[in-house]
Amino acid sequence: MLAREPESLRRVPLHDLHVARGGKMVPFAGYDMPVQYAAGVLKEHLQTRASAGLFDVSHMGQIALRPKSGRVEDAAKALERLVPQDILGIAPGRQRYALFTNDTGGILDDLMVANFGDHLFLVVNAACKTQDEAHLRKHLSDVCHIESLTDRALIALQGPRAESVLAQFAPAVASMTFMDAGPQTIAVNGKALACFVSRSGYTGEDGYEISVPAADVALLATALLDHPDVLPIGLGARDSLRLEAGLCLYGHDIDETTTPVEAALEWSIQKIRRSGGERAGGFPGADIILSQLQTGATRRRVGLRPEGRAPVRENAPLFADASSTSQIGKITSGGFGPSLNAPVAMGYLPKPQSPGAKGVAEMSFAEVRGQKLPLKLSAMPFVANTYKR
Amino acid sequence: MTTLFTTDHEWLSIDGDIVTVGVTDYAQSQLGDVVFVELPKVGAKLKKAAAAAVVESVKAASDVYAPITGEVTEVNEELVADPALVNSDAGGKAWFFKIRIADKSELDGLMDEAAYKAHTG
Fold first, then answer.
1. Closest partner CB to B58 (pick from A41, A310, A369)
2. Which residues in chain A are classed under CATH 3.30.1360.120?
């Protein structure tokens, strides 16, 4: 057999900064990314909840949808062909969570869509960005120019002190509320950086995501990290933070086989796109998703709290009781929640739909190293979010 | 007392036929913040190279293998209550379990401290 060339990892513009600051680099979605720095996952997680953390998410895809007509409504209407969300209803300067669906009602990717007034700005997952871009080109090229913004980096400043830190460089960000998004000038050392800022993130904390020209990202990141309230945070803590916040990780908690209803993401589908709504349906898998919105699905993504101290991790099979041998579901994300100081997980469990049937069982059991560990059904988020509404 | 090391980054402190087992400081630095430890039961008969204990960080679970064959005589309950001891004192307070060694020749292939240091480079 021929030896295979090791797959070369792509580097983000902040690569040298990560290495210089002690980042432990690991492969993630084809990129060489910091999983943690010297402080470690636990401290980085708690730092973000208590003060502020800076995350590099430059591996994610940034895409501009520019309407050929010049009317952003045309781009919004076109994008509604691919997602079950109300895109036309996103006001200029606002952002919304959306889902690309497939013909069987599954999820191709989850994304953020912002209305920048004359075009739409999309942020998609790193592992899906090539296929997302092709999907957009195939279905929207009649209406939009699709531009992959590969010359921009993306960083997130998250935590209760994110506002006071970022406002030192861009005072206008202090008045933004959750899911506001738009161009902002950030001034660093007398240089005006042309950024796109949204008041959002994926940690459950208040904070910002900042799209910045790749050539300027080291300048901005260094300035933010020089602030005593800010530490660099790796992907390890990003994962434990989003898990405590009850947020889905694409490819784990949601994928092509899970529908938005099964994934408990109904909240993301506005009335106007549902049955009886003014623009009902018209997206891939609409028949299945609209029907499930009315009748429910037979399984559901739920929050689970292990009763013991042992973390219950992804792919652990779930059972109805400790003696059962027939699997009823599985864990899709699980680990230790540093803010809860306890293990935490999410996974799929059956939801009986017969008339009068109860919902998802209060107790289930996960098999870990041959033992069945009890899990209690829990509301999500596990840790209350602190978004500035 | 002699201390020996395995290629799996465990240390063994040998006192007569009782061997105390823990993981090395190098191992804890690779594991990251330890949040859970599962130990064998006292009286359990361990076979060399079989999974004997579990140590979990925020991100991942790792097995600790029995470095020798023998019976577990004592386990460190303090470590179960405070798994972070692995990070703060891997070579001391964070011992995992003690085994009564069955066959002392099993110690022959293990490294001394100098050899282990060279191994972890």
1. A41
2. 1-296
**Token pair in block for residue A234:** 């790796």
Chain A closest CA to B32's CA: distance in Å?
A: 6
Element (H, E) at A220: helix A217-225
User: Any residues with CB less than 8 A from the CB of A10 and at least 6 apart, and which?
Assistant: A30, A31, A32, A59
Burial of A259 (0-12, 13-18, 19+ CB in 10 A): buried
User: Per residue of chain A (389 residues), what is the pLDDT tens digit?
Assistant: 444 445 689 999 999 999 999 999 999 999 999 999 999 999 999 999 999 999 999 999 999 999 999 999 999 999 999 999 999 999 999 999 999 999 999 999 999 999 999 999 999 999 999 999 999 999 999 999 999 999 999 999 999 999 999 999 999 999 999 999 999 999 999 999 999 999 999 999 999 999 999 999 999 999 999 999 999 999 999 999 999 999 999 999 999 999 999 999 999 999 999 999 999 999 999 999 999 999 999 999 999 999 999 999 999 999 999 999 999 999 999 999 999 999 999 999 999 888 778 899 999 999 999 999 999 999 999 999 999 99
Write down the CATH superfamily of domain A1-296.
Answer: Probable tRNA modification gtpase trme; domain 1 (3.30.1360.120)
pLDDT value, residue A7: 65
pLDDT for B59: 82
Question: Which positions in chain A have a beta carbon within 8 angstroms of at least one beta carbon in chain B?
Answer: 35-36, 40-43, 45, 236-237, 239-240, 309-311, 313, 335-336, 338, 343, 369
Asked: is A298-383 a CATH 2.40.260.10 domain? The reply is no
From B59's Cα to the closest Cα of chain A, the distance in A is 7
Residues of B in contact with A343 (CB under 8 A): 36
- Domain ranges (residues) in chain B: 2-110
| Cβ contact A240–B36 (<8 Å) | no
Token pair belonging to A167: 């406002």
Q: Kindly list the residues from chain B whose CB atom is less than 8 angstroms away from the CB atom of residue A369.
A: 38, 54
Domain B2-110 fold = OB fold (Dihydrolipoamide Acetyltransferase, E2P) (2.40.50)
Question: In Å, how far is A237's CA from the nearest CA of chain B?
Answer: 9
Closest residue in A to B32 (Cα) is A40
Burial label, A59 (beta-carbon count in 10 A; 0-12, 13-18, 19+): buried
Nearest Cα residue in chain A from B87: A40
Residues of chain A with CATH 2.40.30.110: 298-383
Q: What ipTM describes this predicted complex? A: 0.89
Best residue in B29, B38, B59, B62 for a mutation probing chain A (most A CBs within 10 Å): B59
Separation between Cα atoms, residue B100 and residue B69, nearest integer Å: 8
CB atoms within 10 A of CB A91: 10
